[in-house]
Request: fold
Amino acid sequence: MKVEELSITYKTSFERKPTLKQALIRFGRGQRAVKEVKALRDVSFEVPTGTAMGIIGANGAGKSTLMRAMAGILPPSSGTIEVWGRASTLLALGVGFNKDLTGRENIILGGLAAGLSRKEVEEQADDVAEWTELGDFIDMPMRTYSSGMSARLGFSVAVHMKPDILMIDEALSTGDAHFREKANAKMAELRESARAMFLVSHGLGSIKEMCTEAIWLDKGKLMMRGEPEEVVDAYMKFLKVKKSATTTEDI
Ligand SMILES: Nc1ncnc2c1ncn2[C@@H]1O[C@H](COP(=O)(O)OP(=O)(O)OP(=O)(O)O)[C@@H](O)[C@H]1O
Reply:
Protein backbone atom coordinates (compact mmCIF):
# COMPACT_ATOMS: atom_id res chain seq x y z
CA MET A 1 0.00 0.00 0.00
CA LYS A 2 1.35 3.35 -1.00
CA VAL A 3 -0.24 6.67 -0.10
CA GLU A 4 1.16 9.75 -1.83
CA GLU A 5 0.39 13.36 -0.96
CA LEU A 6 -3.13 12.42 0.01
CA SER A 7 -5.46 15.28 0.85
CA ILE A 8 -9.14 14.98 1.61
CA THR A 9 -11.42 17.95 2.01
CA TYR A 10 -15.02 17.55 3.09
CA LYS A 11 -17.42 20.09 1.72
CA THR A 12 -20.48 20.56 3.85
CA SER A 13 -23.24 23.04 3.22
CA PHE A 14 -24.31 25.27 6.08
CA GLU A 15 -28.01 24.81 5.69
CA ARG A 16 -29.54 21.49 5.09
CA LYS A 17 -31.80 22.96 2.44
CA PRO A 18 -31.06 26.58 1.66
CA THR A 19 -34.03 28.65 0.57
CA LEU A 20 -33.71 30.82 -2.49
CA LYS A 21 -33.82 33.88 -0.25
CA GLN A 22 -30.96 32.62 1.95
CA ALA A 23 -28.94 31.72 -1.14
CA LEU A 24 -29.48 35.16 -2.65
CA ILE A 25 -28.56 36.96 0.56
CA ARG A 26 -25.40 34.92 0.86
CA PHE A 27 -24.57 35.48 -2.79
CA GLY A 28 -25.12 39.22 -2.32
CA ARG A 29 -22.68 39.21 0.60
CA GLY A 30 -20.18 37.15 -1.33
CA GLN A 31 -20.37 34.30 1.20
CA ARG A 32 -19.77 30.73 0.22
CA ALA A 33 -22.45 28.10 0.56
CA VAL A 34 -20.10 25.39 1.67
CA LYS A 35 -17.82 24.96 4.62
CA GLU A 36 -14.61 23.08 3.92
CA VAL A 37 -12.97 20.75 6.38
CA LYS A 38 -9.45 19.67 5.50
CA ALA A 39 -9.48 16.23 7.07
CA LEU A 40 -6.16 15.10 5.55
CA ARG A 41 -3.31 17.30 4.33
CA ASP A 42 -0.54 15.93 2.13
CA VAL A 43 -0.20 12.60 3.85
CA SER A 44 2.39 10.22 2.36
CA PHE A 45 3.60 6.83 3.53
CA GLU A 46 4.36 3.41 2.19
CA VAL A 47 3.47 0.20 3.96
CA PRO A 48 5.58 -2.87 3.19
CA THR A 49 4.09 -6.36 3.20
CA GLY A 50 3.78 -7.85 6.67
CA THR A 51 3.27 -4.56 8.45
CA ALA A 52 0.70 -4.13 11.18
CA MET A 53 0.20 -0.39 11.20
CA GLY A 54 -1.37 1.41 14.13
CA ILE A 55 -3.01 4.79 13.52
CA ILE A 56 -3.29 7.13 16.49
CA GLY A 57 -4.34 10.72 17.07
CA ALA A 58 -6.91 12.90 18.81
CA ASN A 59 -10.61 13.04 17.97
CA GLY A 60 -11.03 14.55 14.53
CA ALA A 61 -7.38 14.00 13.56
CA GLY A 62 -8.37 12.22 10.35
CA LYS A 63 -7.88 8.57 11.28
CA SER A 64 -11.25 7.28 10.05
CA THR A 65 -11.01 9.45 6.97
CA LEU A 66 -7.67 7.85 6.14
CA MET A 67 -9.11 4.37 6.63
CA ARG A 68 -12.14 5.14 4.49
CA ALA A 69 -9.90 6.50 1.75
CA MET A 70 -7.63 3.44 1.85
CA ALA A 71 -10.68 1.19 1.72
CA GLY A 72 -11.81 2.98 -1.43
CA ILE A 73 -15.01 4.32 0.16
CA LEU A 74 -13.87 7.94 -0.04
CA PRO A 75 -12.20 9.42 -3.13
CA PRO A 76 -9.06 11.55 -2.57
CA SER A 77 -9.42 15.30 -3.17
CA SER A 78 -5.81 15.12 -4.37
CA GLY A 79 -3.00 12.62 -4.22
CA THR A 80 -3.01 8.88 -4.84
CA ILE A 81 -3.51 5.60 -3.03
CA GLU A 82 -2.14 2.37 -4.43
CA VAL A 83 -3.58 -0.78 -2.92
CA TRP A 84 -2.11 -4.19 -3.58
CA GLY A 85 -4.85 -6.77 -3.27
CA ARG A 86 -8.28 -6.97 -1.73
CA ALA A 87 -9.01 -4.92 1.35
CA SER A 88 -11.41 -6.12 3.99
CA THR A 89 -12.68 -3.41 6.21
CA LEU A 90 -14.14 -3.36 9.60
CA LEU A 91 -14.99 0.29 9.81
CA ALA A 92 -17.60 1.55 12.21
CA LEU A 93 -18.85 -1.77 13.40
CA GLY A 94 -22.15 -3.01 12.17
CA VAL A 95 -22.40 -0.37 9.46
CA GLY A 96 -23.31 -2.15 6.28
CA PHE A 97 -25.34 -4.73 8.09
CA ASN A 98 -29.08 -4.80 7.71
CA LYS A 99 -30.58 -4.78 11.21
CA ASP A 100 -33.75 -6.52 10.07
CA LEU A 101 -31.89 -9.53 8.75
CA THR A 102 -30.50 -12.29 10.93
CA GLY A 103 -26.82 -12.58 11.78
CA ARG A 104 -26.49 -15.49 9.39
CA GLU A 105 -28.11 -13.58 6.53
CA ASN A 106 -25.81 -10.64 7.20
CA ILE A 107 -22.81 -12.94 7.00
CA ILE A 108 -23.87 -13.88 3.46
CA LEU A 109 -24.44 -10.23 2.53
CA GLY A 110 -21.12 -9.16 4.08
CA GLY A 111 -19.25 -11.86 2.18
CA LEU A 112 -20.80 -10.91 -1.14
CA ALA A 113 -20.10 -7.24 -0.44
CA ALA A 114 -16.47 -8.14 0.26
CA GLY A 115 -16.24 -9.56 -3.25
CA LEU A 116 -16.41 -13.30 -2.59
CA SER A 117 -18.43 -15.56 -4.87
CA ARG A 118 -21.68 -17.07 -3.60
CA LYS A 119 -19.99 -20.48 -3.44
CA GLU A 120 -17.09 -19.13 -1.38
CA VAL A 121 -19.48 -17.34 0.96
CA GLU A 122 -21.60 -20.43 1.50
CA GLU A 123 -18.52 -22.49 2.25
CA GLN A 124 -17.38 -19.93 4.83
CA ALA A 125 -20.70 -19.03 6.42
CA ASP A 126 -20.76 -21.77 9.06
CA ASP A 127 -17.22 -21.02 10.24
CA VAL A 128 -17.99 -17.32 10.42
CA ALA A 129 -21.17 -17.99 12.41
CA GLU A 130 -19.46 -20.42 14.76
CA TRP A 131 -16.58 -18.04 15.46
CA THR A 132 -18.99 -15.40 16.78
CA GLU A 133 -20.17 -17.74 19.60
CA LEU A 134 -23.55 -16.06 19.34
CA GLY A 135 -25.49 -19.32 19.79
CA ASP A 136 -29.17 -19.04 18.89
CA PHE A 137 -28.82 -15.31 18.34
CA ILE A 138 -27.16 -16.00 15.01
CA ASP A 139 -30.63 -16.73 13.58
CA MET A 140 -32.26 -13.71 15.21
CA PRO A 141 -32.60 -10.27 13.56
CA MET A 142 -29.59 -8.07 14.28
CA ARG A 143 -31.72 -5.39 15.89
CA THR A 144 -31.93 -7.72 18.89
CA TYR A 145 -28.12 -7.66 19.31
CA SER A 146 -26.13 -5.67 21.84
CA SER A 147 -23.32 -3.52 20.41
CA GLY A 148 -20.77 -6.08 21.57
CA MET A 149 -22.66 -8.83 19.78
CA SER A 150 -22.77 -6.80 16.55
CA ALA A 151 -19.05 -6.19 16.97
CA ARG A 152 -18.39 -9.91 17.19
CA LEU A 153 -20.34 -10.55 14.01
CA GLY A 154 -18.66 -7.68 12.16
CA PHE A 155 -15.23 -8.81 13.25
CA SER A 156 -15.89 -12.40 12.31
CA VAL A 157 -17.09 -11.47 8.83
CA ALA A 158 -14.11 -9.18 8.22
CA VAL A 159 -11.44 -11.63 9.33
CA HIS A 160 -12.86 -14.66 7.54
CA MET A 161 -12.92 -13.06 4.11
CA LYS A 162 -9.25 -13.89 3.50
CA PRO A 163 -8.31 -10.25 3.08
CA ASP A 164 -4.99 -9.14 1.64
CA ILE A 165 -5.31 -6.00 3.67
CA LEU A 166 -7.20 -5.95 6.94
CA MET A 167 -8.49 -2.68 8.32
CA ILE A 168 -9.91 -2.41 11.77
CA ASP A 169 -11.33 0.77 13.25
CA GLU A 170 -11.81 0.64 17.01
CA ALA A 171 -13.13 -2.87 16.63
CA LEU A 172 -12.12 -4.18 19.94
CA SER A 173 -13.42 -1.47 22.19
CA THR A 174 -16.95 -2.84 22.46
CA GLY A 175 -16.07 -6.47 22.97
CA ASP A 176 -15.82 -8.18 26.36
CA ALA A 177 -12.57 -9.62 27.71
CA HIS A 178 -13.12 -13.07 26.22
CA PHE A 179 -13.85 -11.62 22.78
CA ARG A 180 -10.88 -9.26 22.93
CA GLU A 181 -8.53 -12.11 23.66
CA LYS A 182 -9.98 -14.18 20.85
CA ALA A 183 -9.86 -11.23 18.45
CA ASN A 184 -6.24 -10.52 19.35
CA ALA A 185 -5.28 -14.11 18.63
CA LYS A 186 -7.13 -14.02 15.31
CA MET A 187 -5.41 -10.80 14.32
CA ALA A 188 -2.00 -12.21 15.18
CA GLU A 189 -2.80 -15.18 12.93
CA LEU A 190 -3.98 -12.91 10.12
CA ARG A 191 -0.91 -10.77 10.37
CA GLU A 192 1.07 -13.79 9.22
CA SER A 193 -1.02 -14.27 6.10
CA ALA A 194 -2.42 -10.82 5.27
CA ARG A 195 -0.16 -8.45 3.41
CA ALA A 196 -0.90 -5.63 5.79
CA MET A 197 -3.10 -4.70 8.69
CA PHE A 198 -4.29 -1.29 9.85
CA LEU A 199 -5.65 -0.66 13.29
CA VAL A 200 -7.18 2.61 14.42
CA SER A 201 -7.46 2.81 18.16
CA HIS A 202 -7.50 5.12 21.13
CA GLY A 203 -6.26 2.17 23.15
CA LEU A 204 -2.57 2.97 23.02
CA GLY A 205 -1.80 -0.26 24.85
CA SER A 206 -3.28 -2.33 22.01
CA ILE A 207 -1.32 -0.31 19.45
CA LYS A 208 1.92 -1.10 21.25
CA GLU A 209 0.97 -4.73 21.71
CA MET A 210 -0.34 -5.55 18.28
CA CYS A 211 1.35 -3.28 15.78
CA THR A 212 4.78 -3.40 14.22
CA GLU A 213 4.66 0.28 13.23
CA ALA A 214 2.53 3.31 13.99
CA ILE A 215 1.61 6.66 12.52
CA TRP A 216 0.31 9.65 14.40
CA LEU A 217 -2.07 12.10 12.78
CA ASP A 218 -2.91 15.54 14.09
CA LYS A 219 -5.36 17.88 12.38
CA GLY A 220 -4.98 15.94 9.15
CA LYS A 221 -1.18 16.04 9.12
CA LEU A 222 1.18 13.14 9.48
CA MET A 223 3.16 14.04 12.60
CA MET A 224 5.29 10.94 12.97
CA ARG A 225 5.86 7.42 11.80
CA GLY A 226 7.97 4.81 13.51
CA GLU A 227 8.08 2.09 16.14
CA PRO A 228 4.76 1.96 18.03
CA GLU A 229 6.55 2.56 21.34
CA GLU A 230 8.26 5.71 20.05
CA VAL A 231 5.21 7.13 18.34
CA VAL A 232 2.92 6.50 21.30
CA ASP A 233 5.46 8.14 23.62
CA ALA A 234 5.75 11.20 21.41
CA TYR A 235 1.97 11.47 21.18
CA MET A 236 1.59 11.19 24.95
CA LYS A 237 4.26 13.83 25.48
CA PHE A 238 2.38 16.03 23.04
CA LEU A 239 -0.79 15.54 25.02
CA LYS A 240 1.15 16.19 28.22
CA VAL A 241 -0.50 13.19 29.70
CA LYS A 242 1.35 11.59 32.56
CA LYS A 243 2.52 8.17 31.61
CA SER A 244 1.00 5.61 33.90
CA ALA A 245 -0.66 2.26 33.55
CA THR A 246 -4.09 3.77 34.00
CA THR A 247 -3.70 6.31 31.25
CA THR A 248 -2.21 4.05 28.61
CA GLU A 249 -5.67 2.93 27.57
CA ASP A 250 -8.50 5.02 26.26
CA ILE A 251 -6.81 8.17 25.11
N1 LIG B 1 -18.78 13.37 6.38
C1 LIG B 1 -18.12 14.42 6.83
N2 LIG B 1 -18.45 15.68 6.45
C2 LIG B 1 -17.77 16.74 6.89
N3 LIG B 1 -16.73 16.70 7.74
C3 LIG B 1 -16.34 15.48 8.17
C4 LIG B 1 -17.02 14.28 7.75
N4 LIG B 1 -16.41 13.22 8.34
C5 LIG B 1 -15.41 13.73 9.09
N5 LIG B 1 -15.36 15.08 8.99
C6 LIG B 1 -14.37 15.98 9.63
O1 LIG B 1 -13.08 15.57 9.22
C7 LIG B 1 -12.16 15.62 10.31
C8 LIG B 1 -11.52 14.25 10.51
O2 LIG B 1 -12.51 13.33 10.96
P1 LIG B 1 -12.21 11.78 11.22
O3 LIG B 1 -13.51 11.11 11.49
O4 LIG B 1 -11.38 11.24 10.12
O5 LIG B 1 -11.34 11.85 12.55
P2 LIG B 1 -10.83 10.68 13.52
O6 LIG B 1 -9.38 10.89 13.72
O7 LIG B 1 -11.26 9.36 13.01
O8 LIG B 1 -11.61 11.04 14.87
P3 LIG B 1 -12.16 10.13 16.10
O9 LIG B 1 -10.99 9.76 16.93
O10 LIG B 1 -13.05 11.10 16.81
O11 LIG B 1 -12.90 8.97 15.51
C9 LIG B 1 -12.94 16.17 11.49
O12 LIG B 1 -12.69 17.54 11.57
C10 LIG B 1 -14.38 15.90 11.13
O13 LIG B 1 -15.20 16.90 11.68
